[in-house]
Protein 1
Amino acid sequence: MEIRIERAKTLKPKPDQNHLGFGKYYTDHMFEIDWDKDQGGWHDARIIPYAPLQIDPATMVLHYAQETFEGLKAYRNPQGEVQLFRPEMNARRMQNSNKRLCMPYLSEEDFVEAVSKLVEVEQDWIPTAPETSLYIRPFMFASEPGVGVHPAVSYKFIIILTPVGNYYPEGVAPVKIWIEDEYVRAVKGGTGFTKCGGNYAGSLKAQEKAEEHGYTQVLWLDGNEKKYVEEVGSMNIMFLINDTVVTAPTEGTVLPGVTRDSMLTILRDWGYNVEERKLPVTELMEAARTGALKEAWGTGTAAVISPVGELYFKGEECVINDFKTGPLTQKLYDTLTGIQWGRLPDKFGWIKVL
Ligand code: COI
């Protein structure tokens, strides 16, 4: 893919690395490419100064939500090099999201090249303070103006970058999770396995409810029976029940997380029993009540590994591991972040040094 580069005339001041928050600052440039059916597909790949988009009020994404996105990170390793973590997995997941939403998609090679080129141009924005990184947000939307429901004939694929710290205000500390028994996130045959904006819009009502009750995130039950635990709003979730790690299978309603897959690979490599199975919420709460639930943690690109300190379900609150980060959660966090920031050997071949 040929990428034209137009440099910004003035550069923004860089934010204080110790107070980055999450998604508050954007870099000087962005990647953009268009897809038009009548022009034979993808054309005009470019890195240009970061700027607002001008779109027609009839732009189809604003009405029918044909939109998908991804999230990955760039890290500065101890040798000063820039590295990405499993970017090809994000490329493949976006392809699967786009297929479900009747959208065209970039090849794995072009996706990774676009991400790599933009990060290279913006490498001075990669923060180096502990637990900080450069979050990469590729996204794509139907850009055709039109009223009438059908797959659009034109699209924009864009990548923006934001230097980030921890996703949760708690930092790497246990979060409180609300298990939702009224609203649902995904049903069989729906879009649960995709990263599309609509999934997140539909989750806000329950998130608002959870926050009103003092909980950080929602844990969704399956949308068909409201019986099995699936995923949390911003991450997948895993439970250490006695000596077995249990997590929901990715069978169409759960997002196939890159961090989720990495954790399962590491756990199996360490010899843990890992079960990807439907876990009834009643079994989970019973395990929490009796102490069989030793630890719980969320996994995600933004959230990294986030310990879960408390579960709430239908009026019952259960504290996990005295609301402390458990030893396995800590070991997983140290191992994953060690590989991502280049402090530990890349045993599984997950790192792409630019
Ligand atoms: C990510 O983990 O990268 C996500 O996109 C989750 C989002 C809630 C920030």
Note: The CA atoms of residues 103 and 277 lie 31 Å apart.
Protein 2
Amino acid sequence: MSYYKIAILPGDGIGPEVIKEAVLILEEVAKHFHHTFEMKYGLIGGVAVDKTGTPLPTETVELCKNSDAILLGAVGGPKWDQELSHRRPEAGLLGIRKTLNLYANLRPVTLFDALLHTSPLKSENVIGTDVLIVRELTGGIYFGTPRERKNGENGQEAIDTLRYSEKEIERILRQGFQIAQGRKKKLTSVDKANVLESSRLWREVADRLSYDYPDVKLEHMLVDNVAMQLIRNPRQFDVIVTENMFGDILSDEASMLTGSLGMLPSASLSDTGPGLYEPIHGSAPDIAGKDKANPLATILSVAMLLRHSLRLENEADSIENAVKKTLEAGYRTGDIGFDWERVLTTTQMGTMVRSYLKSPV
Ligand code: NAI
Ligand code: MG
């Protein structure tokens, strides 16, 4: 019997809907494996702006710091699109990542066999897809300064800055190498070194570090080529390590290998302190409030939380297994079952996964 504190940040749009199912899964795991998960809710994103005037209230930061792990839904939506940049919901998400130094974002792209024919790509191309994208999460163009608007000679000018220090590059690359050591020992470092200076530094650091990991085969690939290769032959990849924005874009692309954006979980980790777990998708305003969202990405994020932050391997396996069984039994939400006769709601999908958790076959 063990006791853990988990911060729950539902956020906006479909966030609260998928989080509700994920929390029920956590409660089921607690019952089954005799743990106590103390779950406390915090505000982040648009809902926090509405209630407190800021997308990341101090209480939320404190709650997260005092927890063993954090589970987050998604933030954002058209309602807040006109807000000033520091009051945008996304500033809350970037803020918590930065404050907790969650620089390593792990995004496993794994195709469940039952969804082989769900991907819009040919099944012979996607079969066996098992890629781990390691995305740098607290640097690069999402954080660099100057970031501003000003009046220039030709009307307004907007400036974003892509900046990386050697230290930031080194720590994320080490994560990539170490994770590759525990997998197929192949690391693809993705950059745009033919154009960007930050990428040239990235490549130099990767080459230097590769001497520390002689068992890992390091390759460099330009990001535009990776975008193409992921579709052409995803099986060539084991671990992909890349900077913040490239990782953001490539992982949305890679999600289609698995059938839907609604399938991909993620873990954001620092060297010390709690990890943050969230689906890679956003708040999906187009389907929010309709009980239509696929909760599996968030449920699979719970599995990552149990494995990485709480070291509860069996419990994590049991969730992944329940998701697998649910899909094998033919249950689908709309995003992965567009040609299905009877599509499940978010709530029904969560209930199905729980039923397989209760009675593992
Ligand atoms: P999105 O990821 O919210 O949605 C893209 C498309 O995928 C939509 O058609 C949506 O319906 C669908 N989709 C996403 N998750 C789904 C799920 N679980 N089940 C079924 N379908 C799903 O990205 P979009 O539309 O570009 O952004 C919407 C808002 O979300 C924006 O405000 C954006 O800033 C925010 N966002 C937040 C993120 C986060 O909180 N981590 C990440 C990405 C976007
Ligand atoms: Mg994204």
Note: The chain has a mean pLDDT of 96.
